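Researcher: I'd like a structural prediction for the single chain below. Treat it as a standalone chain; there are no partners to consider.
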Amino acid sequence: MARIAGRFRRVEPRATARAFVLGLLSGAERKNCWQLAEQAGHNRPGAMQRLLRSARWDVDEVRDEVRSYVLEHLGGDGVLIVDETGFLKKGDRSAGVQRQYTGTAGRIENAQVGVFLAYASEQGRALIDRRLYLPERTWCEDPERRSGSGIPETVEFATKPRLALQMIEAALDTGCRTSWVTGDEVYGQDPQLRAALEARGVGYVLAVACTTRVRINEDRTVVQAVAAAATLPPDAWHRQSAGAGAKGPRYYDWAWVQIGADHNRCLLIRRNPATGELAFYLCWSPGAVALSALVRVAGIRWCIEECFQAAKGQVGLDHYQVRHWISWHRHITLAMLALAFLTAVAVSTKPTRSTDPNRPVRSSDPIHLTIPEIRHLFGSLLKRPASSVKSLLAWSIWRRCHQAHARSCHYRRRLATSSPI
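Model: Treating it as a single chain, here is the predicted structure.
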């Protein structure tokens, strides 16, 4: 918290921000303003709500501190990973919400979509940047909706790959040392993103669809990626691990095919040994690299899914109940800070070397401290004494009064807009 203290102009929001982050690290059932205020011992959620909406502090400056904090603790020459995640919502007033596909639900749902940037190294992984995706027609071209949700006039429509590139360039401009960027098909299919990374000398391993057309052979024949894989001889495939999974190394068969005239540009193909299912990646690097290097980067892409799981399950990334543009960014950024703290603690608790290198590893030895375990231990240490009956009842009465007022407003609005039969 000392790192971000200077980003607050007054002591009151600074203290509230500390209570907010401690609440995110606690065992509170839901990490919204109501429950975080009760967890902090406040009488009302007003201070927490003001922190997210009207208090004067620069959320992007705090985001920059989160990024530098992560880079300091996870070491250099990691991999930048881009991906989006959905936040299921009701209604139509939350900034950026509409019916759209989200992998969170696996179908089209009413949701907001956030594009995120993660940093992963051998030490660990964490989220370092975020952008809220605004659909073009339903939001960017609707001044009334924009104004109602507090979207700044300077914010224009940007595709998800464009938002990803903005975050990547911001990380590189602030001194992030990385040789690779990876992402799924949404980003691999965008030629502008690939060209921008090449212009900055940053290699990439980006997933693409099986129908992607590539140039192979000396005569530069254009074929679909799946057709290029079908022509490979058996000895072109190599069994390699894409990294450690929950149940052991993730072994796949891998092959690569040079595409175009650039010797450092290739199509990487992954085959599931059990099902034969294929996945394809467009790869480029400023210098010659081994197949194992591309396989490592392709396998690291799944780290951002682990970040989403930890952020939503441990620090309430998706527990917010806000509609405003600035409120969304403030909640998300403070949740990223809480996740970064847990990641830094996990890194610091890993032993640098065994006290006895000749001692064999036994199955009874505990694994390294995980983020969920650290959050549980930290939350237990911060657990407040049992609230008095008077305090519990006061919060119960306040919640029920607030809910009664909200219900009354909804009924009046419905009756006013409904025509008699």
